[in-house]
Amino acid sequence: MKKQSMNKSVGLAVSVMLASTSLLAACSSTKEGGTDSTKKPAAPMTEAGKYPVSTAETITSWEQINSNLTTFFPNLADSPFGKQLEKETGIKVKYSHPADGQSKEQFNLLIASNNLTDVIEYDWNSSYPGGPEKAIADKVILPLNELIDKHAPNLKKRLEQDKELNKMLKTDSGKYYVFPMIRPDNGLVFRGPMIRKDWLDELQLSVPSTIDEWYTVLKAFKEKKNASAPFTAQYSNELNIQDAFIGAFQTANRYYIDDQGKVKYGPVDPQFKEALTLLRKWYAEGLIDKDFALNTDSKSYDNKMLSNASGATVGLLSGGMGRWMESGKKQDPKFQLVAAPYPTLKKGERAFIGQRDFKYNPAASKAVTTAAKNPELAIRWLDYAYSEKGSMLFNFGIEGESYTMQNGKPAFTDKITKDPKYNLQQMVSQFTKPNGPFPGDSRKSFNTFKEQDEAIAIWEQTDAAKHVLPLFITPTIEESKEVAKINTAIASYKEEMFVKFVMGKEPLDKFDDYVKRIKDMGSDKVVKIYQDAYDRYNKR
Question: From which residue to which does the signal peptide run (predicted)?
C-alpha cells in the first residue's frame, strides 16, 4: 500500500465507496498540518530508547483532535505539545484529524481507500469489522510483537511488569496490535449522572438515588424551573447514558456479564422492556429532551446544559461537569452541578452497572499500519510516551510552562489554572494529550471543583466491575467475520427501535416482535462467540 496525503486518501475512498454527499462534506473538512511527508533518505537512527532520534523522515498519524484544542489550533502539530513532542523525539509528524463527530465515517473511508497513514488512533477492537485479528489478517495493521521487542523498550518493560495489562493487549493468538492508552487506577470511573444542585436547593429537593426520586425531580424541573429538556444526554449512535436508569432493571443497553458470569445481550432481556416503558413515559411527559437524538455534537449538548434548558444529564467528569461549572458560574454564581448515584429501583440497593473502564482503553490506542514505510521509526515515536520523560510531557506538558514540580509532585501552573478567558481543560489541551496511547499518571487531575472530587466516589458505587464485558476480548477471525456481519445489522435495528420505542413511534406491544427479529438476526450466535472469547481471555 502506498502512503499518500490524507486528502488523496479520503478522495480515493470517496470515489471507491460512492459515499453520500454528507460523508463527502465530512471528509472535505478533514484538518491537516505538520511537515510535508515527501519521501526523504533515511538517516541512521539512534539506539532504541534513546532520544532525540536522528532521522530526516516524516511519519503520518490519523487521530481525533481534542475538541478543546481546536479552540486554539486546527492541528496537533501546531500546538505547544506537538512542537515539544517533535523536539524531544526528533521525529516530524504530519497529523490528519477527522471532523468533530464524524470520526467513524471518515475512519471507514480511510480504511476503504487503501491509502493509510503510518499510524491510526482508533478503537480497533469494536470499530474495525472483525477486530484486531481480522485487521492483521486483512493486512491493514501490523502485528507488533517483534517490533515492540526490538524497538520499544519502554512499553516492553511495562508489559513485563504488569501481567494484567500484558494479557489485555494480546489477541488470543498472542499478537500485540496497538500501543495502548493506560488508565491509572484512579481514572477508571469518570462519567455518571449529574444534576443541578442549585435547582434542587431552590425546590427543597434532595439528590435523587431511586427511579421514583428521579421522576419527582425531573417533573419539578419541568414544571417549576420551566426546563424544556429536564434530562438530556449526548447522542453518539445511541443515547450515551452509560446504562443509567436501564441498569436499575438489572440489565444493560449492550452485551454484559450476568451474576453467573454468562454473557447476555441486554436489549432482548424481558426487563429491558420495563426500562423502555420508563423512558417512554418520561419522554411522553416531557422529562427527557424531545430532541435527544439530535445531540450529536458537543455544542448543542453544551447549550442545553448552560441555557437552563436542562438540569440533569449523564456526562463526563472533566469535559462535562468541570467545563460546565466553569462556564455556568460566570453566568450565575449559584450554578452548581453535583454527582448523583446510578439510580436503583429501591433505596439502598447497589447499582447493577454503570460506567467503569478497564486499565487498557482500546478507543484511544494506536496501531501501526502496513502502509508505514518505516515501521521501526513509528514504533520509536510511539514508545516515547511510555518513557519517564515522555510520560511527563503527555500528562503534564512542558515543565516551567504548563507545570512545575512542587514537593516532588507536578502541579499545573497559574497560566493553566487561572486563565481569565479559558477553562482548565482548554488550557491543558494545548500542552498535553488528554487521551491517547500513553500511561495515565495518577497525580494528574483536571478537577477544579470539590464536586468533581466527590463525584468519583459516588459513581464508583456500582457492580460495573462484575458486569461490564471487556472490549478487548478477541474472537477468532472466522468468529469475528460473523460477529461483524451480525452486530452491524443488530446495532442499527436495535437503535432504530430504541428511539422509536422511547419516542412513542412504535408501541411497546411490539417488543416481542423486536426481540424475535434480533434473535433471528443472530444475537444468540454473538452471545456464544463472546462467551467463548471471554472464557479464552480469562485463561490467557
Answer: 1-25
Cell numbers of 220, please?
419539578
Question: How many residues does this entry show for the chain?
Answer: 540
Rounded to whole angstroms, the Cα distance separating 419 from 431 reads: 14
Show the cell assigned to 167: 494479557
Q: Which helix (H) or strand (E) holds 456?
A: helix 450-459
Alpha carbon 39 to chain centroid distance?
A: 34
For residue 525, the tally of other CB atoms under 10 A from its CB is 14
- Could you report the per-residue pLDDT of 271-328, keeping only the tens digit for each? 999 999 999 999 999 999 999 988 887 888 999 999 999 999 999 998 899 989 989 9
Residue 16: C-alpha distances to residues 8, 48, 108 (Å):
12, 40, 12
Per the listing, cell 450529536 goes with 296
The CATH class given to the 31-97+118-185+360-404 domain equals alpha beta
191-356+447-467 belongs to which homologous superfamily?
A: Periplasmic binding protein-like II (3.40.190.10)
Measured at the CA of 519, the angle between CA 516 and CA 522, to 5 degrees, comes to: 155
**How far apart are alpha carbons 455 and 139 in whole angstroms?**
44
- Spatial CB neighbours of 353, under 8 Å, sequence gap ≥ 6: 243, 247, 252, 256, 342, 462, 463, 464, 467, 468
Contacts of 22 (CB under 8 A, 6+ apart): none
At residue 490, the 3 state secondary structure works out as helix
Same fold, 31-97+118-185+360-404 and 191-356+447-467: yes
Residue 207's Cβ-count burial label (10 Å; 0-12, 13-18, 19+) is middle
| Location of C-alpha cell 481480522 | 134
- What the block records as the C-alpha cell of 216 is 419527582
Residues sharing a CB contact under 8 Å with residue 497, sequence separation 6 or more, in sequence order: 506, 514
How many CB atoms neighbour CB 270 within 10 A? 11
Write out the three cell numbers for 294.
439530535
**How far does the chain reach from its first CA to its final CA, in angstroms?**
34
According to the model, what pLDDT value does residue 409 have? 95
470-507 pLDDT, tens digit each: 988 988 888 888 888 899 899 999 999 999 999 999 99
Contacts of 235 (CB under 8 A, 6+ apart): 292, 293, 294, 295, 296
The type of residue at 149 is D
Beta strands in 356-401 (DSSP E): 360-368
Instruction: Tell me the residue ranges of DSSP E strands in 118-166.
Output: 119-121
Provide the 3-class DSSP secondary structure of residue 377. helix
The number of helix segments (H) and strand segments (E) in the chain equals 22, 13
Q: Domain spans of the chain? A: 31-97+118-185+360-404, 191-356+447-467, 477-539
Exposure pattern of 240-260 as b/e (b: 16+ CB <10 Å)?
Answer: bbbbbbbbbbbbbbbbbbbee
Convert 177-193 to b/e letters by CB count within 10 Å (16 or more is b): bbbbbbbeeebbbbbbb
Low pLDDT (below 50) residues in the chain = 1-31, 34-44
